[in-house]
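dumping these here so i dont lose them again. two proteins, back to back, each one seq then structure tokens. dont judge the mess
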Amino acid sequence: MSGVRLLVGTRKGAFILTSDGTRDDWDVQGPLFAGWEIYHLNGSPADPDRLYASQSTGWHGQVVQRSDDGGKTWEPVGNEFTYDGVPGTHQWYDGTQHPWEFARVWHLEPSLTDPDTVFAGVEDAALFRSTDGGQTWQELSGLRDHPTGEQWQPGAGGLCLHSILIHPDDPQRMVVAISAAGVFRTDDGGETWRPSNRGLRSRELPDEEREVGHCVHRLAMNPSRPDTLFMQKHWHVMRSDDGGESWDKVSGNLPSDFGFPIEVHAHEPDTVYVVPIESDSEHVPPEGKLRVYRSRTGGNEWEALTNGLPQEHCYVNVLRDAMSVDSLDPGGVYFGTTGGQVYASSDGGDGWTAIVHDLPAVLSIEAQTLA
């Protein structure tokens, strides 16, 4: 029987949750790397037992870990993330120029076809690639060297590259998102990049529609329709039907269109999930009700999914990487909260169950569907 493995990164270690295809009962392994912030874990689509983890602390810095047996054992691999050439500067919070400084790996995105190839989105924003299973890392410096780089400015969480979408039919084509610079696209494997922010508006900017500077929180895509992208922005939920060349607002009837995560159903490319929170200053659910919102029309028309979720006195947040979907039928949806709960739905969001209640604050979740 097929099964699901959830890779959960938290403020104080990693956890691996596994279940069979019923998704009724879950085994909990962890904490792994106890006491360390685990910004992201991800598995290779080409070899599900090849896992990568980003391990970080303010005291000991950054470590990348790799497992070749589905998380049973781990080994540290290469940890040298060096910007090419003279790094230069980017804009700081106060508008002055600030030197580019590596802080941590925010997101790991393995190749769709080669378990030894993996991309790392880092803070300060840059994209690195390893082709030897994480032993060595090379910057794809065409992104950071873009002429707009001096205008990139940190969001509240830092100047981070957090979303990496690889086109399923053309691995030379990727779309990435940076907070707070916006969306960038390459069609030549990362040699050259162009901003892909037409249609975005950010009232925090002096020029609301300028080429870069937009605080994009998360991108999502269904591989069966790779030119249709969805975005949760600082404010607004957005959709692109041309691979990111242009964007339209699809917030519709959401109670708030501020949030962090966004996901697309594995089998229904027009079914999208978001978790609204009150505002950029109040990172809590509106009215103290934890609600996932689902659109079956690619946006604009949204329904609240509340069955099994707390509907009073709930003041947790769901961070940008803390939502994922599996590819079973019916499709599963998962998210984790800053209160340490991991919720699962085995019916596309109609009903929810808390798999665990008391983990450290959840930073990321990736769902692997196992044969």
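---- next one ----
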Amino acid sequence: MKRLLILAIIALSMLVSVSAEMDYNNSDYYGVINEPGTYVLSEDIISPKWGGILINTSNVVLDGDNHHIICNNGSEETYGVDIYPDGHPIENITIKNAIFKNWTSAIYSDDDSKNVTIRNCEFENNTYFLDSYGIEIYFYLNTIHENQSAESYAPLASPKLVYTYGGTEYTYRLGNYYYGYEGTDTEDEGVYSGVYELDSTTDLYALIKTPENYIITETLYPEVDSEYGALITDIFALTSDPENYVITDAPVTTTPTTTTRSGGSGRSYDSDISDEIDSKVIKNFVSSAVVIFGNEIDQQYAEELRERIQNAENYKISGNAVIVGGPLSNGFAREYNDQFEMPISNDYPGE
């Protein structure tokens, strides 16, 4: 099957970094974050309530400073960190250096939350260490103890990183460390070459050693086209095989949908999306995107994704887009091809 170019239109915003205090007067949560800023825990949290910390605003860094966030409540549904905006989208959330224990969902991320990063955390004795309904999430360098599950519409991985492992510098992506997991094949970059399967997601770059063995020196993001505001992301195959996914280097915007708090599917797609797309990640992106073809042959491939498609001629991209076709037939492919990790050509369109 052809590989397709994926373009995402995003709005960039600066992360506010100020010292901030949580609101501790909520009846359901131990603490609530209502204002942008950096929040650093000074002690362990043992919450007698069904919620630990609620985040309902953008531009937040929650740094656990290696403290515990522990549930001490017997409710059927409990949430360690609840990224749950109240009727409005929020973005740019980072959770790091925290240890989560005894929650139903250690971290919950609603589909109205965008650009969420969770790293260098530890999860023990939770039902779900992650319960996420968005595809705009980076989850990496975390330590996962046994007998926990995860639900996520995006595979669990980092953006592209420059890091040192075993005394050698690499540029690659990293996943997470799972106690009790030993893959059969390894790669020099310090990850298992196979796919680690969880109940409702996958980790494509499961770590061979614990996270402290990977020293990050740089996080790489692609350049933004200043004229169109288009962020050039990676190419991935439209296939249900997780090993063929390539994580995009930045989040993409999804259409608003309705989710449930009980772990149900909660996701709706445009009615013309092909039933042949098994991957939730890809189906969700195609549902939010315009599918643009270059010629009659490419039109046939485009129609395998959805019924409503767009000819590239005289068209201007103004949102998420899937570009079908090589650089000779599709002007958008020609314009952006040299900025992709895996450039395509008409002679080599991919699998």
